[in-house]
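Ligand-bound model needed. iron/sulfur cluster.
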Amino acid sequence: MILDNGRTGMLGKAVTRQALNCIRCGACLNVCPVYQQVGGHAYGSVYPGPIGAVITPQLSGIEKGARLPFASSLCGACRDACPVHIDIPELLLHLRAEVVASQGGFFARAAFRGWAWAMVKPGRYSIATGFARVFPFLLPTGPWKRGRDFPGLARRPFRKWWRDSL
Ligand code: SF4
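Prediction:
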C-alpha cells in the first residue's frame, strides 16, 4: 500500500520538494528556540518542531495547519543544523504566503496587489496615499483588519512635515 498524503504536491514544487529529504534526525528540533519553549504537543501532529511546521500544513492541508508556518522567529538555526540542508525558513515563508493567499478574498488580494505596486516607487506611493486620504473607505477592512490596529492615515503626510521642518 502506498500512502501519498500530499507528498506528490510537495514533490511538484522545487521549494517544497526539499522537505521530502528529511531523515527525521531531530537536529532542527534541538536548536529551535520556539520548540524549546512550546514542546512537541503544541504542533498538533506527529511531526513537531520546525520540520513539522512545514510538513504538517502540506500533509493535512494549508487550512488545518495555517498557524504552524507562523510559529517561528525565522532565526535560521534549523537551517544551519540540518544535515541534509533543508532551507526551513525559506519553506516557512513560502507557506506563510500560501496561507495569506488562501485566506484573503478577491478584494483583499486586489488591494494588496495594488499596495505592492504603489510601494515600489515614491511617486506611486504619494499618489496612492493621497487617494486613500480622500477616499478612506478604500483602506483595508474585514477579516484582515479584525486582529490589527489600523489607525488610518495622518492628515498631514510625514514627507510634507519633513519638508516644512527643514
Ligand atoms: S534537521 Fe533536517 S533532516 Fe533533521 S529532522 Fe530537521 S529537517 Fe529533518
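The chain is about 55% helix and 0% strand.
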